[in-house]
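User: quick one, fold this
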Amino acid sequence: MQVRLLGPVEVAVDDTCHPVPGLRRKAVLAVLGLHPGQIVSSDRLIDVVWGGNGPSTAQNTLQRHMSYLRNVLGAKATIVARPPGYVLNIGAEATDVETAERLIRQARQSTDPAVKVRQLRGALALWRGRPLLDVAGLGWLDEQAERLVQIEHEAASALTEARLMLGEHAQLVPELERLTSARPFDEDIHRQLMIALYRAGRQADALATYQRLRRSLGEELGIDPSQPLRELEAAILRQDASLDPPAPAITVQPAPKVGVVPAQLPLAVPAFTARTREIARLDTVLIRTGHVRSGAASPDAAVVIAAVSGTAGVGKTALAVHWAHRVRGHFPDGQLYVNLRGFDPGGLVVDPAVALRGFLSAFGIEMDRIPAGVDEQAALYRSVLAGKRVLVVLDNARDVEQVRPLLPGAPGCVVVVTSRNQLTALVTAECAYPLTLDLLTSDESRDLLAHRLGTDRVAAEPAATREVIERCARLPLALAIAAANCFTHPELSVASIAGQLREATSTLDALNAADVGTDIAAVFSWSYQALTPDAARLFRLLGLHPGPDVTVAAAASLAGVPAAEVRPSLAELVRAHLLTQPTRDRYTLHDLLWTYAARLSRGEEGEPQRAAAARRLLDHHLHTALSAGQLINPKREPIAVSPPEAAAVSEQPGDRDQAVAWFAAERAVLLAVVRQAVDNGFDSHTWQLAWAVQDFLSRWGHREDHVASQRAAIDAAQRQGHLVAQARSHCGYSTACAKLHRYDEAHSHLRHALDLYEALGDHAGQAFAYYQMGWLSNLQGRHDRALCHARQALRLYRAAGHPVGVARTLNSLGWDHALCGDFERARPRCEQALVALRRLGDRHFEAGASDSLGYIYHHLGNYGRAVEHYRQAVELFRDVGDRYYEADALNHLGDSHRAAGDLDAARAAWRRALDIFDDLGHQDAATIRSKLDALTGISRRATMTIAGPANGASRQPPRLPQTGTRRLAPLA
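Assistant:
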């Protein structure tokens, strides 16, 4: 059952619409529907429905309307009389407005454009015309209709933005042209139309659209287009690369739905040839183990492991990915993939814990809720996969120890492991099926070349083809590179190509067989010699990048040129198969090619040039990370850093979602860059980078990475003798240790930080250290000690003239009083904090203060005020995208509703909390289910008992659990 307000007012029961006759009845239902689950007083209803001029019989008429509406809704309990008025009580999402707002909210929280499109289309489909169409003319309802129209326009605009992100510019053009005709002064629609036209190759039409808008605004309103629109026109004129369709990006999904199906396989290998015997063997393994029966996977099939081994460049990854794409239909619950980088030249071997966190996140479990220990992670991973049919590809493993924690524990899953080592222990202990990849046969090698170069070209020169095959050692990687070079030079005969390879082999002395292999290095050398000077220089400099992948901006920084100038060189390297391009702006090198590029860099680039390129790369990552970090935590005080090198190319994420996406995509690179900064003696960059990535690593649950980066920061700051950096890094290290429950270590580093800040005379720094000590003490249940630390922090923040610190600490002080049971002292401090934080625009901590006050008023027995503050906290946590604390506040909102006797409101709040906890895969979902189960079948007598004695006798307020969540983790 649902009340529909986004059009004519009506009631839907089992998808059947029931119109409500009469203006006043519709208006009464609309007012209740706009306040679902809330008491609307009779006076308020009369004032809205009769426009402040209700007749003397209005009260009686209102009661008759309620009786009629109950009949339409089908149950008396749907509209409940509750002094001083009535409540619409038909459960969660009682109206189409609530459903639309939920879908819009989910779209706003997602960073995946496809998800945004799906959610926004679902929301906009609920509008059936002008909202509240048949109650027009009633003042307050007219205002609500305008508000809902504005929500529709904003959702439509957001949908257009998401579709532009997906590359639907051509389809959008006619739709936007109709909209600009209907709304000739709407700059946002004109902006979107200009972008769509430009991306559709219609630059002139995009500029003409701007000129039409400029004339309309000037002639009708006497104004010019806004500055952003003028800048867009200029960007279109100069064909700015920023207007190009966005590249496919790594999706950061704050709260994937339970039941999400991961699809992590890399792109299928184009033009895959040969290996028919090996593919048949893998197919046979599936059939023999019961994973494929009559075209479907058997749910009781045992876990099967295929261990694919072979030398570097022999095509293990290509085979595994190609086969995985062929059989993925047999695994409807998902396909997981991770490159374990077991033989990475830069030492970036992936820890099993990192891989487990990635897999668990792919199944919808929020990073911050994943256990810290690898054994606990592995247990959770096995639990998540239990009963599922999932294909897991573990690529490039070093040894069995790296693989074993990533193996599922229940039947139904298949694991494919690739490694240069044979992983004999996996075969003997885990009953894995071994598959060794040898070099291609001569026939297979000839087929590969024929597929790339054309059958006629290969058949015309059989002897030369044989020599090319032998020079490439029948290794697929080398053959692919040779074929790419042949393909890009069709004027050359195969014999001339063979001659060039022969010459390269005889002159090669830069590499030896232990690194790459002399024959393979000759292929690389020959392909490298054919590059243009700019592409050859870029390839050498890529040997300085620590991996695992590189963006356009990072490559431009290495080369010291603008991004637009480096793209042609990157494209040339891709065409030569010296570089692969998994997404539009992200590139990777095979391990052998990285080794070769690093050797070339050492041999052909002077030390000053190498050092300058390394500094530009560090500046790129540092300054982009600082920009992104500021979007994640706007109230964090910036640190002083040197300006970037002139030729370093920084990126500027546009909003918080883009900042999070950038950090998620670059996390492995950033950690590698920190290690590289340590190795190369860039101490300032080391601690500054660690500071810049701290908020992301902390908030998104990358605990071990947080510890490692802050440890490097402490060491670098100590080498520099930089006391402020040392103090900051000790604080950061303490936060990371606390989240791993290493409390003694965390306290020790805070004492170091406090000593340093005292030596510096830095009151704000001392205050922050005390604030963090209070947070740490609360985690350990030492609330009296936390209270002492908060008092010290407040005194020092006031002495430093630090209003944000004062406001945040006032809330902490009040919360600590509350945890000690002193609610009368807690209340004024949290109320002062709330006012100050609201004035400062510190919305995350404002939410925490509202949440604190909800807790305090609940324990004072004032459930009405508790509900009010919890509702504010829920809205604020939702606005800042903190879904865990949103659910936590909803949980306690339900507790306060229940304590007040409003069981229906409690149920609604707990259901919303349960939805979020289920989305996050959080253990608190079980607690909420228990509360909801306890409400089932509660009798009227039980309800009265919960609400309190009818005679007004006093009772002790029910206590809430002391979760300690209202003191948010330090963000400094």
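User: anything notable?
Assistant: Confidence is low (pLDDT under 50) at residues 247-258, 294-301, 507-518, 939-956.
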